[in-house]
Design a protein that fits this description.
The chain is of the alpha+beta class. The chain is 29% helix and 23% strand. The protein has helices at residues 23-43, 70-89, 119-128, 131-139, 151-158, 218-221; strands at residues 6-15, 52-55, 59-63, 100-112, 115-117, 145-150, 171-177, 180-187. Strand 4 and strand 5 form a beta hairpin. Helix 1 (23-43) packs across helix 2. The protein starts with 5 loop residues before the first strand and ends in a 27-residue tail after the last helix.
């Protein structure tokens, strides 16, 4: 194999509804998008300065150097990016929110005259643009990020228990875009319900702690609240309030 043909991690990221923005909002979205990627990578212990990147205005294609650990990219980077999006979007108008579709794949690529050649580079681009991922982010409106990973990433890293994701956090989908038909796996952090109908860890209905921290067990969340008894003497004014009366 040529020294230019390397097996690398590939990330393709696209901004949701970018084309609906006016020129000013598009410029702001591009600026904030790059800042969020940089912030997430730094917080995950990754060095984006060493990544090969191609920008497309509404997104980015990246090839990572071999020294970037796959579990850290699939786990920490995605969690940090989701957290950065949550923080950013909390302080902006709804029309200027940034929501992302993110695809992660692994495969062989090589430099070419007009960019990068290789089936893996094509596949990750098709994955981020596929119908199931678009539908997932559209259906999970409170969420800011929808992730799709290739079958290779899922089986080797997630199902292999090399990350803090659980394998059942992801649902299997078929990606059919143009010439590509392949199996992939989707997860929407903070997207409400998991594929099995239980509250998402890290979601508004579940875990609210730092990324990677385990959610509270159901029996811990179901502890009965202690009752409170107040005794009043004289006249009590309770406009808008409620008083319960017990006969013992």
């Amino acid at each position: 194999m040529s020294k230019n043909h390397r097996r690398r991690l590939l990330i393709k990221t696209d901004i949701v509804s970018y084309g609906t923005r006016d020129d000013r909002d598009q410029r702001a979205a591009q600026r904030n998008f790059l800042h969020l990627l940089d912030e997430a990578a730094e917080n995950a212990g990754l060095n984006r300065k060493k990544w090969f990147t191609q920008s497309s205005g509404d997104g980015e294609f990246a090839i990572l150097p071999g020294r970037e650990p796959e579990p850290r990219v699939v786990d920490d980077f995605v969690r940090q990016l989701d957290s950065a999006l949550d923080h950013h979007n909390a302080g902006v108008l709804p029309s200027t929110r940034i929501r992302l579709r993110v695809a992660i794949h692994v495969g062989v690529t090589s430099p070419a005259d007009n960019g990068i050649a290789g089936a893996a580079a094509v596949a990750v681009g098709r994955m981020v643009d596929c119908g199931p991922l678009r539908e997932a982010i559209a259906a999970a409106e409170p969420a800011d990020l929808a992730l799709i990973v290739s079958d290779e990433i899922y089986r080797g890293t997630i199902a292999g228990r090399l990350t803090t994701w659980r394998d059942d956090d992801f649902r299997e989908v078929t990606v059919q875009v143009k010439e590509l038909t392949t199996r992939a796996w989707i997860h929407v952090p903070r997207g409400g319900l998991s594929p099995h109908g239980s509250p998402e860890r890290g979601g508004s209905q579940g875990h609210d702690g730092p990324p990677g921290q385990a959610a509270a067990r159901p029996h811990e969340e179901a502890q009965a609240s202690p009752s409170v008894v107040n005794t009043f003497y004289g006249t009590v004014h309770t406009q808008g309030g409620t008083i319960g009366i017990s006969n013992g």
